[in-house]
UniProtKB/TrEMBL annotation:
<dbReference type="GO" id="GO:0000166">
    <property type="term" value="F:nucleotide binding"/>
</dbReference>
<comment type="pathway">
    <text>Sphingolipid metabolism.</text>
</comment>
<keyword id="KW-0472">Membrane</keyword>
<dbReference type="GO" id="GO:0047560">
    <property type="term" value="F:3-dehydrosphinganine reductase activity"/>
</dbReference>
<protein>
    <recommendedName>
        <fullName>3-dehydrosphinganine reductase</fullName>
        <ecNumber>1.1.1.102</ecNumber>
    </recommendedName>
</protein>
<feature type="domain" description="Ketoreductase">
    <location>
        <begin position="1"/>
        <end position="181"/>
    </location>
</feature>
<keyword id="KW-0560">Oxidoreductase</keyword>
<keyword id="KW-0256">Endoplasmic reticulum</keyword>
<comment type="similarity">
    <text>Belongs to the short-chain dehydrogenases/reductases (SDR) family.</text>
</comment>
<dbReference type="GO" id="GO:0030148">
    <property type="term" value="P:sphingolipid biosynthetic process"/>
</dbReference>
<dbReference type="InterPro" id="IPR057326">
    <property type="entry name" value="KR_dom"/>
</dbReference>
<keyword id="KW-0746">Sphingolipid metabolism</keyword>
<dbReference type="InterPro" id="IPR045022">
    <property type="entry name" value="KDSR-like"/>
</dbReference>
<dbReference type="InterPro" id="IPR020904">
    <property type="entry name" value="Sc_DH/Rdtase_CS"/>
</dbReference>
<dbReference type="GO" id="GO:0016020">
    <property type="term" value="C:membrane"/>
</dbReference>
<dbReference type="InterPro" id="IPR002347">
    <property type="entry name" value="SDR_fam"/>
</dbReference>
<keyword id="KW-0812">Transmembrane</keyword>
């Protein structure tokens, strides 16, 4: 079995790669940083049941369709056709939309949405020809509801829902299984970076869900794939949003907007008070 994992140098991608490597699968890790990829390769190989010779790395930016296609071709020549794709590469740079540079917005779309499409495209034709294969797209709980400061991230991750559904319709007759999952906040290196930038307005909503470990998220994804699940949700609140979003979101957003207005008004009052104090000083 040959498993290709994008975003495989850390976080959820690395945790999933470890699980398949310990099962004896051949694993190809894709990520942008060669040093981190090599470190991940060594880390996986040290696990019981894993074999260094069955783990290869491919430094590549998934936003480049040509580079991704070349990387997949090289990995398939070495380890055979891809049986399972884990599209886990993703980035997040939270900021209010009017404060976010266009380049930052575009990069999130390019990596999270187009990057997923690029790697899927690179393996999909071969899977169709062989009439078999599995594709798992790692979306996010942020795909299920709009969050302050996450316009680019929410847009890119929610777009994967439509992509996965449409591709499933096309792939079904060819024996290719397409799945998507919606992880919550996950304790990864990227999460630490994200938290340093997350607006307080976003934390008001997102802080109500306790972060999962990357290992727990990975284990649930792999179990879901083993059972043929097409959608995988995490935790009660995100599962409820996933299945009953149209019913739940109006009330949830009413509560959220009410809280936001209160925070904004309190901030204005404090700012006005400081200005007044300075004026009479």
């Amino acid at each position: 079995m040959h498993v290709i994992v994008t975003g495989g140098s850390s976080g959820i991608g690395l945790a999933i790669a470890k699980l398949y490597a310990t099962r004896g699968a051949k694993v190809s890790l894709f990520a942008r940083h060669p040093g981190r990829l090599e470190q991940a390769r060594i880390e996986i190989a040290a696990m019981p049941g894993a074999d260094l010779s069955r783990i290869q790395i491919a430094p590549v930016d998934v936003a480049s369709a040509n580079r991704v296609s070349e990387a997949v071709d090289i990995c398939e020549r070495a380890f055979g056709p891809c049986d399972l794709l884990i599209a886990s590469a993703g980035i997040v740079e939270p900021s209010a939309f009017d404060s976010m540079p266009a380049t930052v917005f575009d990069e999130q779309i390019a990596t999270n949405l187009l990057g997923t499409a690029n790697v899927v495209r690179a393996v999909y034709k071969g899977m169709k020809t062989r009439r078999g294969g599995k594709i798992m797209m790692i979306s996010s709980g942020a795909a299920l509801i709009g969050i302050y400061g996450y316009t680019a991230y929410c847009a890119s991750k929610s777009a994967l829902i439509g992509f996965a559904e449409a591709l499933s319709a096309e792939a079904a007759v060819s024996g290719v299984d397409v799945s998507i999952c919606f992880p919550p906040d996950t304790l990864t290196p990227q999460y630490s970076h994200e938290m340093s930038m997350r607006p307080a307005e976003a934390e008001l909503l997102m802080g109500t869900v306790k972060p999962w470990s990357a290992e727990a998220v990975a284990a649930k994804i792999v179990r879901g794939l083993d059972r043929g699940r097409t959608r995988i949700h995490f935790g009660l609140s995100l599962t409820a949003l996933g299945y009953f979003g149209p019913l739940i979101k109006p009330l949830l957003m009413w509560w959220y907007f009410r809280k936001l207005r209160k925070i904004i008004e309190e901030g204005r009052d404090e700012s006005l008070a400081r200005s007044t104090d300075k004026g009479f000083g």
